[in-house]
Design a protein that fits this description.
Elements lengths: L2 H25 L2 H38 L2 E4 L2 H5 L1 H7 L4 E3 L4 H5 L6 E4 L4
Antiparallel strand pairs: 1-3, 2-3
Helix pairs in contact: 1-2
């Protein structure tokens, strides 16, 4: 299963258990309260683990791109024919500023990263 989908499922279950926990607290049912409190804690740990892994992977990718020898803004004409650009420059990685990676790198324009100038 995709980590994005797994994270969504865990958040949905966490939300459901929180609602059930609130209802149990309103009733004063101590057995159910402890059961759902344990479940909420367990799911919260899983969610935190997955988010930490995603953050680690994103930072690793960001560092790899920053370590590449050359980067520059992609012009509008190059953006119009990205396929041609990718074929002409071996190993180019294009990062859009609206993606997670682009936001973490604080890009304002579409940028290309490569090991050699292009």
């Amino acid at each position: 299963m995709c980590t994005k989908q797994e994270l969504q499922n865990l958040n949905n279950r966490l939300d459901k258990y929180n609602r059930k926990l609130d209802a149990a607290k309103a009733r004063g049912d101590q057995e159910i309260i402890t059961k759902f409190t344990d479940e909420v804690d367990k799911l919260a740990k899983k969610v935190h683990t997955i988010k930490s892994k995603q953050s680690y992977d994103l930072n690793k990718e960001r560092k790899k791109l920053k370590a590449m020898g050359f980067s520059r803004e992609i012009t509008k004409s190059e953006q119009a024919d990205i396929g041609k650009l990718k074929k002409s420059v071996k190993g180019i990685v294009l990062v859009h500023p609206m993606t997670k990676l682009g936001k973490s790198m604080e890009l304002s324009v579409m940028t290309g990263f490569a090991s050699s100038p292009f």
